[in-house]
Amino acid sequence: MSATTGPILAIGAISFGNEFIQTKNLNFRIVLATGIAAGILSLMERLSVELAVGITWIALVTELLAPPKPGLKSPVQELTSLLGIKG
Fold first, then answer.
1. Are 56 and 45 in contact (CB under 8 A)?
2. Predicted local confidence at residue 53, as pLDDT
3. Confidence check: pLDDT of 84 > 70
4. Alpha carbons 81 and 58: distance in angstroms, whole number
5. Beta strand residue intervals within 1-87, DSSP E
6. What residues have CB less than 8 Å from 86, skipping those under 6 apart?
7. Cα(87)–Cα(75) distance, integer angstroms
8. Cα(3)–Cα(52) distance, rounded to whole angstroms?
9. What predicted TM-score, i.e. pTM, was given to this entire model?
10. Does residue 1 register a pLDDT over 90?
11. Residues 58-65: contacts with CB within 8 Å, 24+ apart?
12. How many helices (H) and strands (E) does the chain have?
């Protein structure tokens, strides 16, 4: 398994779960996009491992902090609201 596969699958799971929790709809486009991204980044690792891993970790941080769509909360915002943490 390549170095980018784990974080990319985590991104897909977080995105899929966050959207399901907020909208109660299963968005299978996220699953497809995650698979495509994992394949592309795995191929990119053949050119530069550091670049591919860097892009993956930047994507993970972005996924956690940025809202996916207007009107939805980011995963961090959703988690803090579920836990009752006031910001």
1. no
2. 95
3. yes
4. 24
5. none
6. none
7. 15
8. 9
9. 0.89
10. no
11. 59/7, 59/8, 59/11, 60/7, 60/10, 60/11, 63/11, 63/14, 63/15, 64/14
12. 4, 0
49-83 tens-digit pLDDT:
999 999 999 999 999 999 988 999 999 999 999 89
Only one residue has tokens 């497809």, namely 32
Dig out the tokens for 15 from the structure.
Answer: 């995105």
50: which residues sit within 8 A by CB, 6+ positions away?
none
Amino acid at 36: I
pLDDT at 87 over 70: no
Angle between helix 49-65 and 5-23 (nearest 10) = 20
Which residue reads 């836990």 in tokens? 83
Question: Residue 50 in contact with residue 2, Cβ under 8 Å?
Answer: no
Tell me how far apart the alpha carbons of residues 77 and 71 are, in angstroms, rounded to a whole number.
Answer: 12
Residue-level pLDDT at 85: 87
